Amino acid sequence: MKTFLAFLMALFIILTFMGEKTEAKFISETKFMMDTTVSITVDGSHQDIQKAFSAIEKINFLMNDYIPSTEISVLNRKGTNKLSCDTRQVILKAIHFSKITRGAFDITVGPLVRLWQRMGREKRLPTSNELNRALSLVGYKNIKISGDTVKLLKKGMMLDLGGIAKGYAVDKAIEVLRERGVKNALVNAGGDMYCLGEGPSGKWRVGIQHPRNLRKIVGIISVANRGVATSGDYYRYHVINGKRFGHIINPATGWTVQDTPMSVTIIAPNATTADALATGVFVLGPVKGLELINSLPKVEGMIISKGMKIVTSSGWGKYEVKRFY
Ligand code: AMP
Ligand code: MG
C-alpha cells in the first residue's frame, strides 16, 4: 500500500455540476488517505462526507501494513494475530479472488513487494537467491483462519492488502452513506471507486485514463450502483537500469508484471471485487484476463496493452458511451 512515485488518478470523474436533470445539490471533498487521494462527492451534507472519510480511515488503521501498529502489521511480525471482522472479511475475499484467478491475485506477495521496493531504492535487480527466498514465502494456501485468529504458516510470510483494501474501504464508506440516507454519491480512492445512484446529470460518467498520455482519456463509461477500479503500470513504479518495474507482481515468478497490460479497468457490483479483479487480471494479461472477466456474471472489463491494443469484455458496450482510441 505504499506510494512510490507520483499519483495521478487512474480514472477521471467527469462531473457536470451544471446538470439540469436533477434537483440534487452535490458537494465534494478530497483528502490524502491510504497513500492516495480520496474524493467523496455526495448529494448530501458535509457531515455525510466526514462519516464516510472516518469509515475509510478506520479500514486504513486496520489494514495498512506500513503503519507498525495495525493488526495486519502485528500479524506480519508475529505470524499470528486475532483480527477484526473487517480484516478477516478482506482476507477471506482475497482468498476467493486467489482461487478464481488461479493464484494471479495473492495477498501473500508481501515479501516480494518489500524486495522490489528495496531493489527500487538500491537501483538493482534481485539476485536469484533473493528472489527465490521471497518467492518461497508466497502462497495463499498457507493462510490459516480459525475463529478470529489468523495464522501465517511459514515463518517470514507477510500479507499485503494493497490490491484490495482500498476497494473494501470504498464499499465501507458507501455503506455508511447509504445508512445515512444518501442516495447519490461517488467515492473514489485513487482509482478504486463506487458510483452510488446517479450524478448531477444522470448516471455517473467515468473517464478511463490514457496509460501513457495522462492528460487524455481513452473512453467514457456511464454507471450507476457499480464499483469501478483501474490497475495501471503508470503511477506506481520503480526505474531500475532504465527499465520500468511496476508495482504489481506475478506471484508465479516473483517478477513484476512486464510487457503485458498497461491498464486494466473493471466494472463490478462492488468496489472490493473491482479492485481485486483489476489487480488479478493485470497479472493474468489480456487473453486469460478477458476469459476470466467474461466468465463472471455482472463483471465487465477493459484491458489496454502495449501499443494501445484495447480489448473489452462481452458486455462492456452496455456501459461505454464514448471511445477515443
Ligand atoms: P492495485 O493498485 O489495486 O492494482 O494494487 C497493487 C498493490 O497490490 C501493490 O502495490 C501491492 O501492494 C499489491 N500487489 C502486488 N501484486 C499483487 C498480486 N499479484 N496480488 C495481490 N496484490 C498484489
Ligand atoms: Mg486492486
Would you give an account of this structure?
The model is unreliable at 1-10 and 16-20 (pLDDT under 50). The protein has helices at 46-63, 71-78, 85-100, 110-122, 128-135, 165-179, 271-295, and strands spanning 11-14, 26-33, 36-43, 80-82, 143-146, 149-152, 185-189, 192-196, 198-199, 202-209, 217-223, 226-232, 237-240, 243-246, 261-268, 300-305, 309-312, 320-323. 32% of the residues lie in helices and 29% in strands. An eight-stranded antiparallel sheet has the order 2-3-7-8-12-15-16-17, covered by helices on one side. Strand 13 (237-240) and strand 14 (243-246) form a beta hairpin. The protein is built from seven helices and 18 strands. With 325 residues, it is of the alpha+beta class. It has two domains: 2-62 and 164-323, T-fold, CATH 3.10.520; 70-152, Orthogonal Bundle (T-fold). The two termini are 31 Å apart. The longest helix is centred in the C-terminal third of the chain and has 25 residues, at 271-295. Bound molecules: adenosine monophosphate and magnesium ion (MG). Adenosine monophosphate is lined by residues 1, 105-107, 109, 113, 160, 162-163, 231, 247-249, 251, 275, 278-279, 283.
The biggest sheet amounts to:
8 strands, antiparallel
Strand order, biggest sheet? Answer: 2-3-7-8-12-15-16-17
**The CATH C-level class name of the largest domain:** Alpha Beta
Number of domains: 2
Query: Any guess at the CATH architecture of the largest domain?
Result: Roll
Q: How do the helices and strands follow one another from N- to C-terminus?
A: EEEHHEHHHEEHEEEEEEEEEHEEE
- Strand content of the residues, in percent? 25-35%
Unreliable residue runs: 1-10, 16-20
Briefly note the CATH topology name of the largest domain. T-fold
Radius of gyration (CA) equals: 19 Å
Structural class: alpha+beta
Please state the overall shape, judged from the principal axes of the Cα atoms: globular
Number of helices: 7
How many β-strands, per DSSP?
A: 18
> End-to-end distance, in Å?
31 Å
CATH superfamily of the largest domain: ApbE-like domains
